[in-house]
Amino acid sequence: MALEKHSFLTEFPDHHHTIRHLKMHNHHFAKLFDEYNELDHEVYDIESGNKPTADDYLEQRKMRRVALKDMLLEIVKKEEAAL
Question: Whole-model pTM?
Answer without folding.
Answer: 0.90
